[in-house]
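Crash report, auto-generated. Payload:
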Amino acid sequence: MSCQLANKEEIKQAFAQVHSVWPHDPDPAVHLQKRLSSVQHQRATWFVVKESGQVVCSLGAYPFQLFGPDGDRPARALGAVFTPAEHRGKGHAPRLIRWVCDYYAAQGTQDFILYSDIDPAYYQKLGFQSLPSYEWSWELPASVPQVDLTVFPARPLDPSLAGFRYGIRRQTEEARWVQEKQHSSLRLSRCLASGKWLLSRQDHGTYTLLESNLDQTAARWPELVRLVESDARQAQCHRVKGWWVSPEAEPAPELRDRIRPRSEEILMWASLRGDEDPWRADISRHGFRAHLSEHI
Ligand SMILES: CC(C)(COP(=O)(O)OP(=O)(O)OC[C@H]1O[C@@H](n2cnc3c(N)ncnc32)[C@H](O)[C@@H]1OP(=O)(O)O)[C@@H](O)C(=O)NCCC(=O)NCCS
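Recovered output after restart:
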């Protein structure tokens, strides 16, 4: 058994295998073509565990830059960790995660993130810690204030980093990735009066806010509600959702019915710098700025 950087054939095997959990199309052949050609998946470097010539586990590692008060750090985000059902329970995924972290550590990368869709305890055993990560969602009320919004052909903008001590630094070349991985057309609305903008996606009546320059602090929350509800109604949606992206450590108690800890896409971080990492105390309390558009 060996852990290794995947070649083209191994990437194909790995991509075909994930059809059962992350299908791009009901037809496995179409799924494979879509995954192979997707901008999202081409952005990652792929790794596999091989046993008797077969891929028995795989994951992708996406390049990111984290920022903090003392500068930037190269980081990798691990995604699409997958072991086919018949090979589970043999420790393949932990072995591969450790191997990939060692591989990048040898190149000077000491920070790793992932978004867990499973019990975070699984990744905690591998040295990842859960960071505070919240989402909001609600059904639109019957009556919604009408805000004058101008809708533009959508193109991701550069979401502001102001007020955030830690976060993912958006590189300009990532705009295409942000756009194309959504698999649906985006909507960019601007409130010309306030200069606020909202980049969103609409799926079957649900309006998902991907990123915005709206301030999500408790003091400015009513403005977010007003703009999001108005934009969603104009986009003919009945439900809104998004990630809570705020420099505040926790949602204010009176907003807890709408802003809740995430049960999926839970942000996790591992630093190979150990307990001495100067970021640890702050980042454990505040998490860092990551927009839903940057989710891998
Ligand atoms: C999660 C997964 C990658 C583990 O792969 P693996 O090679 O079997 O890894 P392991 O040998 O450590 O798996 C066994 C462990 O996984 C745990 N596990 C499997 N699915 C889990 C889930 N949904 N939630 C929490 N733990 C889970 C098992 O409880 C077991 O834990 P234990 O060792 O404490 O008994 C694999 O089950 C899988 O591919 N699942 C479907 C895709 C997925 O959900 N990927 C993770 C996305 S964040």
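Post-recovery validation: The first strand starts at residue 2 and ends at 5.
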